[in-house]
Structures are given as structure tokens and as C-alpha cells.
Design a protein that fits this description.
Number of helices: 24
Shape: globular
Mean pLDDT: 80
Order of helices and strands: HHHHHHHHEHHHHHHHHHHEHHHHHH
Low-confidence stretches: 1-26, 42-52, 491-495
Helix content: 55-70%
Strand order of the largest sheet: 1-2
Radius of gyration: 23 Å
Strand content: under 5%
Largest sheet: 2 strands, antiparallel
Distance between the termini: 33 Å
Length: 495
């Protein structure tokens, strides 16, 4: 939990910090039973209230909520902007929120399209998932510095589920109409997974299970995200090399993919291999510069959007798509899709996939929100976070979005760019909206290999977490083995 008195682990806004990654913060102090009662329980209840039956206390609480003041308190609790917007410091915070929101929005565009490839859906649906969830979390979330949208872990888990639910025909040679039908079925499956994940989180909210965030183990979260980085790297190798390979699912998919890539290596495309090498040669140093000079730069260098524009211009002027068969993004449909309820008949099939995704969403989002809440001395409501992410996934699924959550890379970017409140999310939505309405044709000739490079470079922080493995081995070899198994298996839902 965040905001625990006496449990600060990160420096305040005016103090120096050597925090390189939000998940590399020190562990919070243990939460004992006495401490728990002080923070969340009514340790000083009257004796007559303790003797009162539980059903009577629940009835009393519901009755008080139906009164005018009770309804207003409930509204304040469920719509956080009603609490923080009247106290918003317009002169001090607006510029920082605007710059941070626009910066994150610029990153959301290529990253959303890239993570859509992980999900096995067309790139434009990554833009939808970078718009609707961000807008909803701005209205319902309590994490002032949290950035939501597409997340590599969930995208990879969703892609594995989609590939299993809607496999590609063995023939592999699909006509244009057959490819559109396959994409439509996969989009529907991904939206159904998001719907199920959101419904489960709303059920957790109804049961007030937000307190589970107190017991999240930081090493487990690190193992989860580090394992995701490893799976993302391996899954993007076919796109980097220009080798069309079917996605491997089930047990040992990581090693099956590596074996398939090594077998197909002689058939790799020189053009796409060159594009990938040049893209990584630009993206990796830019990210390193952003980290090393974060205190000197007024805003992080938007390496992703620069790479996207350069690659699009190069592909257009050189006709790489026709001369060398380079795979490109193609036409991005303008506007938004019509609201559509996912097929309820699919829910029993996707329940085993939705449950781990709901738990991953809550684990990562609650941990990340708590870390920054501790750093900047405010509190979050873990139950309200369940509501925010549950509504975000459920409502956005009606607009063909795939599962979403808080994201490590864009949250860190938001803080570095000077974001102060959830209002930054509105500026981020403005950038994505402009691409969906007007700027989509700019990305027609974008090579998909560049999106694969963006996926890999965005995992930089997660790869660096692996440097803590020797320390974990010295502290607890049991935890080392357990977290290693989580890292190797985590992104794959049950098969």
C-alpha cells in the first residue's frame, strides 16, 4: 500500500534520488498485524459496536450511504477528479502536465502499434488501446503519476491466447478477404479477453480485494516483468530478421521459437535486417541519453517517433515494400470503431486466460502506483484502482481494445517529463486522437521491423532488473529458483 506513515522508501519531491527504475526501489517495511489494524482497521471501536452483529453493521453502513452526505462521499470516492481538481495548482502544474502528456502521447503512437503486433491484431487497435483506457483511468484512477495503455506483458499473454483461440490456417496462403476475416476474429477474441479481465477485476472490487496489494512481493513483480522482456525479445526475432514464422504457444514456447528462428536464419531478409540494425542503433543510444541526462533535458528525446518518421520516409522514397518485399503497416482506418459487445459465447473459453491477466494488471499497476505515491507523499486507494482498471478494460473492450494496464516505460517517462496529476492523460489522448482522425496516412509505409525494434528497446528497464539476480541468489536461493521459473513461464496463459 502507499502513503503508510513512517514507511517512506523513496525521497520526496525536493530530495535527490538515484532511482533508475521504479521497480528498483527499496522494500517497504513489513506490515505486521498491529500495523495493519492501525492503518485499515478500527482498532478503537466501541465495545457495543464490536458486539453488534456483522449484518447489522453492513445494513447501517448502506443506510448511511443513501443519505445526502453519504451519497456525496461515495461520489467523491468513486470520481477522484472531484477531490483533486478543485485543489489543482493551475500555474504550477498545468505546463508540466501538458508537456508530460504530449510526450507520453507521442510515445504511445508507435508503441501502441508495436504492442498490437504482440497481440496478433492489426496496428490500429493498439492506438485504440492507447486512447480509451487512458481516458477512463484519468476519470477513475488515484495514481497521479501512473500512465496506462498497452503493456508488453499483457500484449504477449493476449497474443498467445488469441493465437490459440483463432489459429492461422495451416496453408498459410490467405487471400485479402480471408486475411480480413482472420483479423476480425482475432480482434474479437482479444476484446473478449479484455472484457473478461475487466469483469473479474470489477468482481474483485465488489469483494474489496484491493487489500491484496499489501501482500505483493516485489521480487515476484520483478520476475514477472523481466520474464516478459525475455519473451518479448524472442517473439520479435522473426520480425527483426524478416522471417515469417507462426507464433509458438504452450509449454517451452520460448525455446521452440528460438529453434525455429535458428532454422529459418538462412532465409532472413537483408533489407529488413538492415532496417532493424539501424533502428536499434538509433533507439538504444537515445534511451540511454534520456536516462543519463534526465536532469538536464527539459523533456526526453522522442527517439521512437523520430525513428518512425525516418523509416516511413525511407521506405516511401526507396519503394522498399515493392522492391524488397518489406512488410509495412499499411492503411490505418480513420476514426473509431463502432461499439460492439464481445461474443459472450467466448467467455467460458477465455476465462482461464482472463484470470491471470486480471491478476497481472492489478499486481503491476498497484505496485507501480504505490512506489510513486510513496515517492511523492500521497496515498492511493487500491480498491479504487481495481475499479478503474476493471472499468477501463471492460468499457474499452466494447471498442475492440485488447487488455491494458499501467505501463512501466511510459510511467517513468511521464514523471521525468514533469507530470503532476492525472490531467496529463488528457493531453496524451489528444495526441492519439489527432493520429486517428488526421495523421494516420503518415504511417502507411512504416516497416513492421521498426515496430519490433520499438518493442525490444522499450524493455530496457526490465532487462536491467536481471542484474539483481546475483544478489537474490545470495539472499535466498529458494526465491531465486521460484522467480526464475516465473520469469520463464509468466507471459504464457494456460494452454
Amino acid at each position: 500500500m502507499s502513503g503508510l506513515p513512517g514507511a517512506r522508501t523513496c525521497p520526496g519531491p525536493g530530495e535527490a534520488s538515484d532511482l533508475k527504475s521504479p521497480l528498483s526501489a527499496k522494500f517497504r517495511e513489513p506490515l505486521t498485524e498491529t500495523r495493519f489494524q492501525q492503518l485499515f482497521g478500527d482498532a478503537e471501536q466501541e465495545p457495543e459496536l464490536l458486539a453488534e452483529p456483522r449484518w447489522s453493521r453492513l445494513w447501517r453502513r448502506r443506510a448511511s450511504a443513501c443519505s445526502g452526505p453519504g451519497a456525496w462521499r461515495l461520489l467523491l470516492a468513486r470520481l477522484p477528479p472531484l477531490r483533486w481538481l478543485p485543489h489543482y495548482r493551475w500555474r504550477a502544474w498545468l505546463l508540466g502536465d501538458a508537456v508530460a502528456g504530449l510526450t507520453v502521447g507521442i510515445v504511445h503512437v508507435p508503441q501502441g502499434m508495436a504492442f498490437a503486433l504482440l497481440t496478433s491484431v492489426p496496428p490500429v487497435f493498439g492506438l485504440y488501446t492507447s486512447f480509451f483506457p487512458v481516458l477512463i483511468y484519468t476519470l477513475l484512477g488515484t495514481g497521479r503519476h501512473l500512465s496506462t495503455g498497452t503493456f508488453a506483458v499483457l500484449s504477449l499473454m493476449t497474443g498467445s491466447a488469441v493465437e490459440r483461440l483463432v489459429p492461422e490456417p495451416l496453408s498459410g496462403n490467405l487471400s485479402g478477404i480471408e486475411k480480413e476475416q482472420l483479423d476480425a476474429q482475432r480482434v474479437g477474441a482479444a476484446a473478449a479477453v479484455a472484457f473478461g479481465s475487466g469483469a473479474l477485476m470489477l468482481g474483485m472490487f465488489a469483494l474489496q480485494l484491493g487489500v491484496l496489494a499489501t501482500f505483493l512481493s516485489e521480487p515476484v513483480v520483478k520476475a514477472l516483468t523481466s520474464g516478459a522482456a525475455l519473451h518479448v525479445l524472442v517473439s520479435q526475432l522473426p520480425s527483426l530478421l524478416g522471417v515469417p514464422l507462426p507464433r509458438q504457444i504452450g509449454c517451452f514456447a520460448l525455446f521452440k521459437t528460438l529453434a525455429a528462428v535458428l532454422t529459418a536464419l538462412p532465409r532472413s531478409s537483408p533489407a529488413e535486417l538492415t532496417i532493424s540494425a539501424l533502428s536499434l542503433a538509433l533507439l538504444v543510444p537515445v534511451k540511454e541519453l534520456n536516462v543519463r541526462f534526465r536532469d538536464r533535458l527539459p523533456t526526453p528525446i522522442p527517439g521512437e517517433i523520430a525513428m518512425v518518421l525516418l523509416a516511413s520516409v525511407l521506405c516511401f522514397t526507396s519503394s522498399l515494400d515493392t522492391r524488397y518485399n518489406v512488410q509495412i503497416v499499411g492503411l490505418l482506418p480513420g476514426g473509431f470503431p463502432q461499439p460492439l459487445l464481445p461474443s459472450l459465447a467466448e467467455l467460458p473459453r477465455i476465462l482461464a486466460d482472463s484470470l491471470p491477466m486480471a491478476l497481472v494488471t492489478f499486481a503491476v499497476s498497484a505496485s507501480l502506483a504505490s512506489i510513486y505515491a510513496d515517492k511523492y507523499s500521497y496515498t492511493i486507494d487500491s480498491n479504487q484502482e481495481l475499479l478503474a482498471h476493471g472499468v477501463s478494460n471492460l468499457v474499452s473492450s466494447l471498442f475492440s481494445c485488447f487488455p491494458n494496464s499501467a505501463t512501466l516505460a511510459t510511467t517513468s517517462l511521464l514523471v521525468d517529463a514533469g507530470g503532476n496529476t492525472q490531467l496529463a492523460g488528457l493531453f496524451s489522448c489528444m495526441v492519439v486522437l489527432s493520429v486517428l482522425l488526421w495523421l494516420g496516412p503518415l504511417f502507411y509505409y512504416l516497416p513492421k521491423a521498426v515496430l519490433a525494434c520499438i518493442n525490444i528497446s522499450s524493455m530496457r528497464q526490465m532487462f536491467f532488473q536481471m542484474r539483481e539476480l546475483p544478489q537474490l541468489w545470495r539472499i535466498s536461493r529458494v526465491d531465486f529458483v521460484r522467480n526464475g521459473s516465473i520469469a520463464l513461464r509468466c507471459p504464457l496463459p494456460p494452454s
